[in-house]
Amino acid sequence: MVVPHISPGSDAAAATAGRPSSGTRDRPLAAAMRVAAAAFLLFLFLFPVVPAAHARATPDALPGVVLTSLPPEAREVYAQIRKGGPFRYDRDGVVFGNRERILPARSRGYYREYTVPTPGAKNRGARRIVCGGEPRVPDACYYTDDHYQSFRRIRE
Predict the structure, then answer these.
(1) pLDDT bucket at 55, cuts 50 / 70 / 90
(2) Active site annotation includes 54
(3) Per the residue annotation, which of 73, 100, 147, 156 is the catalytic one?
(4) pLDDT band for position 136 (50/70/90)?
(5) Non-local CB neighbours of 36 within 8 Å, separated by 6+ positions
(6) Could you tell me the pTM of the whole model?
(7) Structural domains of the chain, with CATH
(8) Which residues of 18-40 are buried (b: 16+ CB within 10 A; e: fewer)?
(9) CA atoms of 47 and 40, how far apart (whole Å)
């Protein structure tokens, strides 16, 4: 009877000893898959997936809303924007980055955001008006009541 030679560090030795194999041949593949998964997640973080219907919209492609149909708090903030303030929140008037890419593409600094108070909310809430162009005479303003998930162009 011939007994095959099994070296102590081999996968066959591990199998005969009841231990899981070292999987040395699978290690490069597993490492490559981890790197690919990490790269994919980084890509999604840097370039969020946006529905094609919203990506790089034109002003007319977004639904509109008549100013008078907005909540009274939104109408008040809109009037404050036209007057140049004063604003209730420190973050009012800061640059809006349009990372969601729902609004039309413009250079950084074009859009500014303003908080629309939400009655009963203990924080700033989800409602905002985002305006593009000159602060007192914006080219266009947009209303969102779901924290940038959707926008409607404000029409006077």
Answers:
(1) very low
(2) no
(3) 147
(4) confident
(5) none
(6) 0.63
(7) 11-46 (no CATH), 59-155 (3.10.450.30)
(8) eeeeeeeeeeeeeeeeeeeeeee
(9) 10
Catalytic residue chosen out of the listed positions 5, 100, 113, 134: 113
CA dist., res. 38 & res. 98, Å (int): 25
- More reliable by pLDDT, 103 or 9: 103
117-123 long-range Cβ contacts below 8 angstroms, 24+ apart: 117/73, 117/77, 117/88, 118/73, 119/73
Distance CA 85, CA 91 (A): 12
End-to-end CA distance of the chain: 96
Mean of per-residue pLDDT scores for the chain: 81
What would the two tokens of residue 86 be? Answer: 């004063």
Asked if 113 is an active-site residue, the reply is yes
- Token pair for residue 49? 């997936």
